[in-house]
Input
Amino acid sequence: MVDPDLPNTLYAATDIGVFATNNGGGSWSPLGSGLPLVPVLAIKLHRPSRILRAATHGRSMWDLSVPTSGLALGPSVISLAPPFTPAGTAAFSLVVNGANFQATSVVRWNGSDRSTTFVNDSQLSAKLTATDLNLLGVAQVSIYTPGYGETSDVTFAVTPAIPAYAHTLSASAGQYQNAAPGSLLPIALTVRATDSLGKSKAGLPVTFAATNGGGQVNPSSAVTDANGLASTKLTLGSAAGLNVVNATSPGAQPVGFLEGANNPDCRSITSSTRPRATIKPRLQARCCRFP
Output
């Protein structure tokens, strides 16, 4: 409903009361004080008295004063920044964006007051404690302002904590080499660790293990460097055939290296017969030429 006397002022009957805006719909706030959170089926403005009458479902009729001197709209919450955080996050200040905040407005976390800083009429800052952020689930954030009561809740999610070693391993160098049985491969078997954005992750433990072919790795464990790289050297097994080395790190899928100890009677291993890194290969190859 458009107010005929106040510019950019509108009223809306909703399932949780009457809301009003004085900026053309840029922000909405509950209208009046004491009106229950009930469905409002109809509203009608009596222009001479500037009374807005609201017909509710089950809670009778309510008269709300809307003087032409301007609406004294109560605070409302539009958004939170951030809207979520992983469980176990250290204490920080939550930014609450909205409209019509006052210096006396207080942020409430699940109904309990939190230390609040008034930034301006559209922003508040509240200090959340580490205890607030320990439990997984959804918290209800609202604003209480003396004289206007409490706003509707906005949800803040506490999500599962990100694993310490949440990353991806990939083969960076040394894959598909072929040399004489019992020899040291010339190129180190190297993996690269990256995070979800593809950035290198340093300081992560990587374990190397020869799982097929009888080869020996040295070292058997390493830590990723500043470029996210960790490597080992492989001495092939004494028999001709396929050598497999698995590289593993907590929080990442293993990476498999396929290497060959050749012999004169060599045949190729195709991609369709290459074993998965974590499965003991079924192919009993006598050589390793990788197409």
About this structure: The two ends are 73 Å apart (CA to CA). Confidence is low (pLDDT under 50) at residues 263-291.
